[in-house]
Amino acid sequence: MEQVDVGFRTITPLWTGDAWGENRVIMPQSILGSMRYWFDVFCLAAGLKTAAYDGESVNMKEFHEKAMSFIELYPNAGMFEVSMKALAEKGLSLSSIVFGCEGWRGVIGIRSITGPPAMLSKKLGLPYAIAKKRNEHEGKWEEITLRQPGNYDRKEYHLWFFPEKIFCGEGVISFTCADPILKEALLFPLLSFIQDYGFLGGKNNMGFGRVKFYEASGRARVRMRRDEFLFSRIFENVPDIKIKDAVEEVNSFDDLISCDKLALFRYDYKDAHKNIRKELNDSDRNHNIGYSDAIKFLIRKKAEERAEEKSNQKYKEKSNDKKKRWDDAMRHFIFGSIQKDKFGDIEGPNATKIIPWYGEREGDKLECGFVSVCFMKDFGSQRRQ
Question: What structural domains does the chain harbor?
Answer without folding.
Answer: 2-56+92-117+166-245 (3.30.70.1900), 127-161 (no CATH), 250-382 (no CATH)
